[in-house]
Amino acid sequence: MNDIQKLADILNAAVILLNSNTHEANYLNAQPTDTSNHTINFLLANIQLLSNHQYQSLNSPWGHILTCQITNNLIICLSFNYSETSNELMTMHSLSNLKSISQIIYKLYNGKDAPDTDVIITKFSDKQLVKIENNQPFDATLFFNAETDIIKAIIYSHNEQLTSALEKLSYIKIIGERFANNNYIRGEKDTLISYIAVLNRAIIQWGYPVESAFRLHNDLVQEIELSSQFFDFFQVIREVTWHYFNVIKNYRVTNFLPLHERIRQYVKEHITESMTLDDIATRLNASKKLLNPAFKNEYGITITQFIRQVKIDAAKELLIASDLTLLDISNLLSFSTTTYFVKTFKEITGLTPKYFRQHFFDQHLHL
């Protein structure tokens, strides 16, 4: 189970072990801030359905849960909560590789190749009941109203309103006959890019820095274009929306944080960029001389060391959760060259990226 916990940590997910015989469920890694055990209750309420499929992705209002049946009565569940994370880079790639991640979980537990079956996408309501898929045909007015509600929820940081607006949007057929009938993936990408453009303009009009907004837009578009498929298209819409929600929410509160926390937050939010101390000082409106002392006093490492570590942590996630090439990952994380990326990865982990990707399953691998 240690390797499954490690995989969940890399993917920023909570991992739950579910026993369909005893109806018991327990978190295996650090339990998220879920004092009401909402996720566990959600799973137990639908345990019979979970036992019917080898791999399943549960599309919920707050994120998604990937389940893998590892024995006749045991199910491993990875829970991704979009409202608690701003790491859209990894979640988008995870959503594009649901089957491979499910097979990784199976192999890590059983030590043998996983069944080659498809991931079943299931949509649930917030009342924990299975919803029959009954999408309405495209209605421009309904779509515009849902999109307007989403923008308002993002701008004013209204969590419940965003959940409700996304639930309404999920019933509108926003992809299909209107887009690229002969190339469905292109239609999905065009829809996502158009949607991101609307959100981007909205946060700029609210007051989010133009340069940062367009950087966010360009990063997301690049990730979309690099994705070869979307197993659950609406979950990508949902994840992107929650990311914008978190970006604005974090931007609103960071001005009141201590300098070391603002630095840490900035690095994590701009991990795909090439960052210098001058850049950080300018963006945070702080003295360059104060940056490293404030950060090292709190965390024990320099800002440059932290940037390298966070980038390599992100690279680990991409190596496991996606089929991107080393060049793709190097470019996505703004390493100057692929050679420098490989060198940095090995300095920090002791392994090459290629070895890490090929041998992550090994029981003796300790990272």
Automatic annotation (TrEMBL):
Keyword check for Transcription regulation: yes
InterPro entries per record: Homeodomain-like_sf, HTH_AraC
Pfam families: HTH_18
Domain of life: Bacteria
PROSITE patterns: HTH_ARAC_FAMILY_2
Keyword Glycoprotein found: no
Assigned keywords, A-Z: DNA-binding, Transcription, Transcription regulation
Domain HTH araC/xylS-type: 261-359
GO MF terms held by the record: DNA-binding transcription factor activity; sequence-specific DNA binding
Alphabetized SUPFAM superfamilies for the sequence: Homeodomain-like
Name by which UniProt lists this protein: Ada regulatory protein, putative
Native organism: Leuconostoc inhae
